[in-house]
Design a protein that fits this description.
Keywords: Glycoprotein, Glycosidase, Hydrolase. Pfam families: Alpha-amylase. GO terms for molecular function: alpha-amylase activity. The protein is α/β, with parallel strands linked by helices. The protein is built from 17 helices and 15 strands. The strands form 3 sheets. A 7-stranded parallel beta sheet has the order 8-7-3-2-1-10-9. The N and C termini lie far apart (about 65 Å). The relative contact order is 0.11.
């Protein structure tokens, strides 16, 4: 077995000092701010966000009051999937900067007492990764091909895919090697785009190389890792490969139809060997590096990824997917806390991210709305009342920030940004648009670059335009328009995060013994109570001093509809 790929890059840097808390459990109650690098801030005016732009805007995160920066992929990539097709795991995309720029960003973050978490994408590489290029030049059965999942096709001439496995983005999960690439005509597995060939995690060389990658970034001062599609690494590669038996469904949709741990390529029990191995690396640092799994699996299975000897935390997608309904939210919150407790982890809460419709739009849509159909209608069927959506989003935010565990905030939600649902087809960049034959618009609407100022060609995002068009309405949401303005969404977040830090004590939650229908009433500590009114009319508040509310109280002091209040005793 060969050694891991050599690093090839010198490291003329000193590890950034950890000026924030050295508490090994800092992440358990932290607030993370997700930055999608290409859409946050553009320092060189080319229309694409970059690392220097992030560094210049880190004071925004510091004054906001978050604890950590979560950086989505910044690695060399052809952008077949927004940077999640990685060509080199230990470098920076030249369009976004350099390793020196990365080091400067980490140093500035630590100076501002911000932790740094980066994305790791271990399920697949880019087709432009040197390993895959070598695999195409190599013969079937070679060590180079064994790093990926290559198989002969079915049919008389191998013209059919090896199995009925479906890509998450639509169509077969197999692509046949083109004749001009390799004459053998084998097929390779890609659970996402064809430009993202899946790695073979049964191969020790693959495992060793990722150990090197985790140490590389940890040595540069990174405090933690978000593991992309953490549930997909292990696959049943027994010969012959078995069909899923549900070709009309994607792998994710068929997951719950099979006994736990037996799906051919999702959430297999063997994947946990990888994360137990990674935990040894994380724990070799002081403080230990944290990690969080992106695992789209049922709650009981999700807890396995969050065990202390594995990743330690896992994203809670049930909460993100919950509707604006008191009983549903109470059930999800209760179950999520129990799931996290069973794993010895803290819970996680998130309302928006780079893959979903922003919650300022999503939460106001009627229950059962087909979000894909809504996007295809350019957000007109049904139309969204932005004012009502923002009110509900602000209430949802205060509820989320009152819950025990870690909160993950997506860039721009502190400005109240809605989904940009009416992006023209010619502007779309998400591969889902083409791979679905224009039947799914994709995720570009939540990735539109941020507005920092009320004027300028890209509202302060950069000196020039932006890689995705910003609507004129973004001017009213800009940081400049909200900074210091009493009652603005930006100031609500700042105040809430400062109060949260002061009030936070322990990981317990107690529901009120009695509460009106449609009202969530919970107590975190003896001095912190959160009441959310999800009804269409005002409700009485319990006794206590109102510390903060997502909207002004009614004239008679009652809590209005779609409003959350924090109370102190």
């Amino acid at each position: 077995m060969s050694e891991p790929m050599p690093d090839r890059r010198s490291q003329p840097y000193a590890q950034s000092p950890d000026l924030s808390s050295r508490d090994p459990d800092w992440w358990r109650q932290a607030v993370f701010y997700q930055v999608y690098p290409r859409s946050f801030a553009d320092a060189d005016g080319d229309g694409l966000g970059d690392l220097r732009g992030i560094t210049r805007r880190l004071t925004h995160l510091s004054t906001l009051g978050v604890d950590a920066l979560w950086l989505s992929p910044f690695y060399p990539s052809e952008l077949a999937d927004g940077g999640y097709d990685v060509a080199d795991y230990r470098d920076v995309d030249a369009r976004l900067g350099s390793l020196e720029d990365f080091d400067a960003m980490v140093a500035e973050a630590h100076r501002l007492a911000l932790k740094v978490m980066v994305d790791i994408v271990p399920n697949h590489t880019s087709r432009r990764h040197v390993w895959f290029e070598e695999a195409l030049r190599s013969a079937p059965g070679s060590p180079a091909r064994d790093r990926y999942v290559f198989r002969d096709g079915r049919g008389e001439h191998g013209e059919l895919p090896p199995t009925d496995w479906q890509s998450v983005f639509g169509g077969s999960a197999w692509k046949r090697v083109e004749a001009d690439q390799a004459p053998d005509g084998q097929w390779y597995l890609h659970l996402f785009t064809p430009e993202q060939p899946d790695l073979n995690w049964a191969n020790e060389e693959v495992r060793a190389d990722f150990r090197t990658t985790l140490r590389f970034w940890s040595d540069r001062g990174v405090d933690g890792f978000r593991i992309d599609v953490a549930h997909a690494l292990a696959k049943d590669l027994d010969v012959p490969l078995r069909d899923l038996g549900a070709p009309e469904l994607s792998g994710a949709e068929a997951l719950t139809a099979l006994p736990p741990g037996t799906h051919p390529f999702f959430d297999r029990d063997e994947v946990h060997e990888v994360y137990r191995d990674w935990r040894k690396i994380f724990d070799a640092y002081t403080p230990p590096r944290m990690a969080v799994a992106e695992a789209w699996v049922p709650g009981a299975r999700r807890a396995l990824y969050a065990r202390p000897d594995e990743l330690g935390q896992a994203f809670n997608f049930e909460y993100l997917q919950a509707g604006w309904d008191a009983e549903q939210l109470r059930r999800v919150i209760t179950d999520s806390l129990a799931t996290a407790h069973s794993a010895g982890a803290s819970a996680t809460w998130v309302l928006s991210n780079h893959d979903v419709v922003r919650h300022a739009s999503r939460l106001t849509l009627p229950p059962g709305t087909d979000l894909n159909a809504w996007l295809l209608s350019d957000g007109t069927a049904p139309p969204v009342d932005e004012t009502a959506g923002l009110r509900r989003a602000r209430a949802a935010t205060l509820l989320m920030l009152a819950l025990p565990g870690s909160a993950y905030v997506y860039q721009g939600e502190e400005l109240g940004l809605p989904e940009v649902a009416d992006l023209p087809a010619a502007a779309l960049q998400d591969p889902i648009w083409e791979q679905s034959a224009h039947t799914s618009k994709g995720r570009d609407g939540c990735r539109v670059p941020l507005p920092w100022t009320t004027t300028g060609p890209s509202y302060g995002f950069g000196a020039g335009g932006a890689w995705l068009p910003q609507p004129p309405g973004f001017a009213s949401y800009a940081v400049e328009a909200q900074d210091g303005v009493e009652g603005s969404t930006l100031e609500l977040y700042r105040t809430a995060l400062a109060l949260r830090r002061r009030l936070l004590d322990g990981e317990d939650l107690t529901w009120a013994a009695e509460s009106a229908p449609g009202v969530l009433d919970l107590t975190r500590t003896d001095t912190w109570r959160c009441v959310t009114n999800l009804t269409a009319g005002p409700v009485e508040l319990p006794p206590g001093e109102v510390l903060l509310s997502s909207a002004p109280l009614e004239e008679d002091g009652r809590l209005g509809p779609d409003t959350t209040a924090w109370l102190g005793n």
